[in-house]
Amino acid sequence: MTENPAPVFILACIACGKTVSGIEKSCPRCGASFDEVRFECPFCGELVLLDSSKCGACGTEFSVFAELVDENSSVVLDGPENDVSQAQGPDIMEYECPACGKPVSANDNECPSCGAKFSEG
């Protein structure tokens, strides 16, 4: 009798969003560590340890689910390689409110968080 290999899960790095294999210990893009990583059951949303073979809440057998997923899917789950902060767009100046420390834009006359008034000067 042959033993079925454990399914390999595809996850998104919580730090940068890169699609990674569930067996990775860290993200190849940003280096974030995946110690004690849990994933969300695709059926009930329960957080499950990576080495679990089934969901403790709804009983979904992940090996059966993995068999049903087409490995040649044309859906691209991975985002662009460039950092979002490098994306082209209008330059928006943000400042810190001197009263509460929350972000405010250059166009604000008062802090949207605490209501502190700003004066030009």
Brief summary:
The chain has 121 residues and is mainly β. The chain has one helix at residues 62-68; strands at 10-12, 19-21, 38-40, 47-49, 94-96, 103-105.
Count up the helices. 1
Q: Biggest sheet: strands, sense, closure?
A: 2 strands, antiparallel
What oligomeric assembly is this protein in? single chain
Q: What strand order characterises the main sheet?
A: 1-2
Radius of gyration: 22 Å
Principal-axis shape: elongated
In the residues, how many domains can be counted?
2
Q: Low-confidence spans: pLDDT under 50, at least 5 residues?
A: none
The total count of strands amounts to 6
Mean pLDDT: 76
Strand content: 5-15%
Approximate helicity band: under 10%
* SSE order, one letter for each helix or strand: EEEEHEE
Which structural class do you get from the secondary structure elements? mainly beta
Distance between the termini: 80 Å
